[in-house]
Recover the amino acids of this structure.
């Protein structure tokens, strides 16, 4: 059984930075495409970023381009999301997601983490 777990959320002032981490176990990590999604209260879940199995290809949501960076360390079975220049509108629950076959779509996600809260104050 695959288990996905996030860490690193918290509260920060606008303009600050946070780094989220996610580990996945139960399948070879490099067999999984990985991604981050977020959902704010009253809003639809949206893609933040995703990364291919090797880490060669990445994709970002328009609202986070040039501020967030996704990366992975397959030797450590860990996914990262470096978030810089945070804005109040980045406040949301952030979910780590893993997929065996798909890429960059919540419809292709096979495994979800429990979520980690990110709160950005103005």
């Amino acid at each position: 059984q695959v288990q996905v777990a996030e860490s690193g959320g918290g509260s920060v002032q606008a303009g600050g930075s946070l780094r989220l981490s996610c580990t996945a176990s139960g399948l070879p990590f490099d067999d999984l495409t990985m991604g981050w999604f977020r959902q704010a209260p009253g809003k639809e879940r949206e893609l933040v970023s995703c990364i291919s199995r090797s880490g060669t290809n990445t994709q970002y949501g328009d609202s986070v381009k040039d501020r967030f960076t996704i990366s992975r360390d397959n030797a450590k079975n860990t996914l990262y999301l470096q978030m810089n220049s945070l804005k109040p509108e980045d406040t949301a629950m952030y979910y780590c997601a893993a997929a065996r076959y798909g890429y960059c779509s919540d419809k292709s996600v096979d495994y979800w983490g429990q979520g980690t809260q990110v709160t950005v104050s103005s």
